[in-house]
Amino acid sequence: MTERRASDAGAPTMRDVAARAGVSAMTVSRVLKDDARVSEASRERVLRAVDALGYRRNETARRLRLGSSGMIVLIVTNLANPFYSRLALGVQEVASEHGLRVVLSNTAEEYERERSAVADFASRQMDGMIVVPAGSNHRHLTPSALRGMPVVLASRPPAGMDADCVLVDDFGGAEEATRQLLADGHRKIGFLGNPPALYTGAERFRGYWSAHEAAGVEPDERHIRRGLADVGTAERAATALLADPEPPTALFCTNNRLTKGAIRAVRTLGRPVALAGFDDFDLAEVLGLPLTIVSYDADEIGRRAAQMLIDRINDRSEAPLPARRTVVPTHVIRYGGAPA
């Protein structure tokens, strides 16, 4: 009798494995689930049959029977930013450990694009969703809007709703970096910030201001620029600040794109300006500039968010878990000519 193989008669089925092992299809299913009720002899026969036939479970069909797609969604605001690439890697790491695939979507900080993507993925019955929200209106992320799909927010907290979230210590990191500049003797510290409506922008500005208050120094409003979006706008803002008759001797920037814009301005003007910024970035250590960076583990944000989401997916308790919040710590790195 010719042995049946996938190449001869299509992919082998669980019934094929059962027939070869001389057991029921239910026994094969239990072996593949590591069910302790199966005898060792039956387990060995099933595993030998699996190897001989090259059997592989149809994971898509199995998950559909269980009411699961086997996929989770990650929605970010700017995939070009290395921060979100690292966050995605952290999500992928944990998802893979649990046999889940990750679908990635980018909103370009556009609320309507985010709302549309969320509605689309909710209709496709994904297992869950991790979102870095683009705006402060989160009505489209409520349980009713998501048809009961679990959601976790990353980097920015929920507004007007309860949801799990993973944040960075935005306030503490900005306060520490600004405090370092003040300790270095700077009394005119400019501020280059992202839009104040964003949680990160507001918290990092609050940290900058708090460090000044603690030192008894009042920031000069003329040296504060908020609402900057990218490298270009930051470069122009920094150039304008440094052209002031009484320019700041240091600049604090609220993300890596704004820091890069400030670096361009400083290089072009050739001014001796100390720089501090949120988010580490490649080659920061080789620029030779006095650079103070607020660093943190972006992968860890993704790992924590993914684990929170999986907890929600697996939760079968009658009383749902209360909304949880976790904060990833920051630390300051001094590069180049920055004082130790």
TrEMBL record:
UniProt cross-references to InterPro entries, sorted A to Z: HTH_LacI, Lambda_DNA-bd_dom_sf, Peripla_BP/Lac1_sug-bd_dom, Peripla_BP_I
PROSITE patterns according to UniProt: HTH_LACI_1, HTH_LACI_2
HTH lacI-type domain boundaries: 12-66
Keyword Endoplasmic reticulum: no
Top-level lineage group: Bacteria
GO molecular function ontology, one term from the record: transcription cis-regulatory region binding
Residue ranges crossing the lipid bilayer per the database entry: none
SUPFAM superfamilies from the UniProt entry: lambda repressor-like DNA-binding domains, Periplasmic binding protein-like I
Pfam family, one: LacI
CDD domains: HTH_LacI, PBP1_LacI_sugar_binding-like
Keywords tagged on the record: DNA-binding, Transcription, Transcription regulation
PANTHER family: HTH-TYPE TRANSCRIPTIONAL REGULATOR GALS, LACI-RELATED TRANSCRIPTIONAL REPRESSOR
Record-given protein name: LacI family transcriptional regulator
Source organism per UniProt: Streptomyces armeniacus
